[in-house]
Amino acid sequence: AVMDVLRGFNLGACSHIIGKPNDRGVIEFMRDAKIIYCQPRSALHRLWSETSWRISMLRENPACAQAEYDRLLDETDPGMQPKVTFDMSENVAAPFLATGVRPRVAILREQGVNSHIETAFVMHQAGFTAVDVHMSDLIAGRFKLDDFQGIIAVGGFSYGDVLGAGEGWAKTILFNAALSDQFAKFFNRQDTFGLGICNGCQMMSNLKPLIPGAHAWPKFTTNKSEKFEARFAMVEVLDSPSIFFNGMAGTQTPIAVAHGEGYADFSQTGNIDEAVAAMRFIDNRGSATEAYPFNPNGSPRGLTSVTTADGRFTVMMPHAERVFRSVLHSWHPDGWGEDSPWMRMFRNARKFVG
């Protein structure tokens, strides 16, 4: 088929088939019907990656660098194997969109954050009126959380994370009596919901004294790899009360990861046995993992999202808002439509509001 296209542009004379794939995991060069060079693909892949591995061994956690390098030896790795447990074509928010009512959701941000534009867009697509709310707006009284049914705290690097990931952002709330009272009131209303993504996750984990049912949440600290992780990782949605993951339990699918402090650290605060897990990292065989690079931050039990006892407030380190469309994935299975599985979680929020 490719040659036909090339011939159609009069390029056939200068286009030649020089090879074809095989299922033996080897790369061969032949001349005069004889094999003159043959090496396993994994060996050549490691040779290609050797310089990066040596740099990583000096610059980052050498155990993680070695683990990623050794992963190339696994010739039986099946690659990413998405499994979706619900009908991706079903729009659970459709009945509520038909009413024309769009509840207000605050896209909450602070100095240094990002992802607020795509977060606003996906919430609009899910049936909300998304309102850009900066922390300075709440401090000045231009907006009040009383006027919203939901908040989405977005990702990024508030205050450059110089006080710790999400710490400065959280302290602008905790150390301001009026703001602290306003957030506590919002969290205690029974008609509200909230989601913290990446830096928003780190920030909201520091607000757990204000959030009912969040007492067991961890603190999110430096990745075990000791570096910023920006990659595509496999996760599994767990059975939990989270309103965002309603009907998604058992789904295993890729998601964007971009953080330097995503390790769920229970050594300082929280309790892993009491925390309500909502999502975890898995390997390409579908098993929960702490192994690098499948688990890019090394969190225990693969944990990367927790929720409250009633499921109204959820925090997660990966970026679902960056991959809610199939075309936003660096790879996705054939047959996926416009929406990826992650669109469901935002529509679930609209269904929750009713």
List keywords for this structure.
alpha/beta; Rossmann fold; 2 domains; two-stranded antiparallel ribbon; 27% helix
What this model shows, in words?
Helix 2 (41-59) packs antiparallel against helix 3 (62-71). The protein has 354 residues and is an alpha/beta fold. The chain contains ten helices and 13 strands. The protein folds into two domains: 26-71, no CATH class; 94-353, Class I glutamine amidotransferase (GATase) domain (Rossmann fold). The longest helix has 19 residues, at 41-59. Strand 12 and strand 13 (313-316) form a beta hairpin. It has a nine-stranded mixed sheet with strand order 4-3-5-6-13-12-11-8-9. A two-stranded antiparallel ribbon has the order 1-2. A two-stranded antiparallel ribbon has the order 7-10. The model has no long low-confidence stretch (mean pLDDT 97). It has helices spanning 2-8, 41-59, 62-71, 94-97, 116-125, 135-140, 167-174, 177-188, 199-205, 343-353; strands at 26-31, 34-40, 104-109, 129-134, 150-153, 193-197, 219-221, 229-237, 252-259, 263-265, 276-281, 303-307, 313-316. It starts with a helix and ends with a helix.
